Amino acid sequence: MAMGPVGAGQRGVRMMRLVAKLVLAAGAMACVLGSVGRSQAQQTIRVGWTIPAEESKYWMMRRPAEFPDLGKAYNVEWTQFQGTAPMTQALAAGALDCATQAPLSLANGVVGGNLKAYIVAQHVFEKPGGFSVYWAVMDDSPIKTIADLKGKTVGISVIGGGTQGPFNMLLKQNGVDPTKDIKLVEVGFAVSEDPLRQGRVDAVNMNQPFAARAEAKGGTR
User: 206 with 133: CB under 8 angstroms?
Assistant: First the structure.
């Protein structure tokens, strides 16, 4: 989680603890907080979030006892985004105070958008048996390997978002030029299954809970 300049004093410490509590989400949480004086607290914290893989909002909704000061000492204003890249822009523009971030999006914001942020918490790691974002195709698709994606239309949650960097590396390792050999189109995670089944894309990236929904229906791999 990243946090911008915070005024001295206990309010800054409380804000950091609050933000750390907020996140049970994917990737790092980046925060850019303006200076907060000792006598003036920020009453509303503007938090960017995306679906899927972000549980912070639901955790706060279902476990209010964990946040006894919510609605009293502070409020949270939630804004939903399609991916982490637009949230990076919103952080840099001062439209958000905090947002979950993928490493690539956060790095691009720092390098290209003059984003000044502190990483406060990181909550996701991958291990055998866990879930990883994957690209799905239909069962009857001729695509069997990554190299078979050459010349195909591929859906991705957000162009320039956190999944594109690793995907580009994977393509290059298998002889596919990500800038020339595929047609990349934006398809939000929530609707990723539909264009795949309708034949508008040949492959599309899947994340939870939408991957489980598609798998339950069958016909994809």
Answer: yes
The arrangement of strands across the sheet holding 75-80 comes to: 75-80, 44-49, 98-101
Measured distance CA(44)–CA(66) in Å, rounded: 18
Higher pLDDT, 180 or 121: 180
- The boundaries of every CATH 3.40.190.10 domain in the chain are 134-217
User: Apex CA 185: angle with CA 180 and CA 191, to 5°?
Assistant: 155
Query: What CATH architecture does domain 134-217 belong to?
Result: 3-Layer(aba) Sandwich (3.40)
User: What contacts 84, CB < 8 A, 6 or more positions away?
Assistant: 27, 50, 99, 100, 101, 102, 105, 106, 158, 161, 162
Mean of pLDDT values over 204-217: 89
Q: How far apart (Å, rounded) are the C-alpha atoms in residues 141 and 48?
A: 36
Q: 98, 19 in Cβ contact below 8 A?
A: yes
Which pair of structure tokens corresponds to residue 56? 């912070």
pLDDT tens column, 29-69: 677 644 444 334 558 989 888 865 556 677 777 788 888 88
Which has the higher per-residue pLDDT, 29 or 162? Answer: 162
d(CA 162, CA 166): 8
- Strand, helix or coil at 34? coil
Q: Report the SS3 class of residue 152.
A: coil
- pTM for this entry: 0.56
pLDDT for the residue 170: 93
Residues in the chain: 221
* CATH 1.25.40 holds for 10-122: no
